[in-house]
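FAQ: What does the model actually see?

It sees only this:
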Amino acid sequence: MLDGDEIERQVNAFAEEVVQIARRNLKIKSNTNFRGERYKSTRKPRRIEASGKTGASLGHKLRVMKNSYELQFTGAPETQFVEYGRKAGKAAPTKNIKEWIRDKKVKPYVTTSSGGRKFVRRTPRRLRIMAYLIARKIGKEGTQPTYFYEAAVNEALEKHLNIIENGLAADI
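And it is asked to produce this:
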């Protein structure tokens, strides 16, 4: 029989593993999300995370009450848009997009008269223009979900479910 402290340790171990798997999922290069749906705009495999800030912000909180446990996974505010995507309809904030452009090292270019591209220097003005254009496109088309956290929870549940179930059954 597991006591309350042991159940709390098991739930914490489960939560820590979910966070660790989620961080790993953010670094995987792929053409598909974690439900197997192909990304529309990707030809080459790509990483979900650009700078590592999203992964660093992931965590969990466990609240122990008299007859129950509440487990909450936390992250930066942008984490929900990475996980579930963003619906079309409203442009995204350009501040976050400017950071993303810097982190991904996106190069601005101009179209030449022959139809080719000429890469140009990144200036604050060009950065604002690129951020506005990307935000406008997100507003028109939205972004696709990745489900990186969902996949992490499912993977960790397979490993920890028996331990947690046995502990709770013995406690009851």
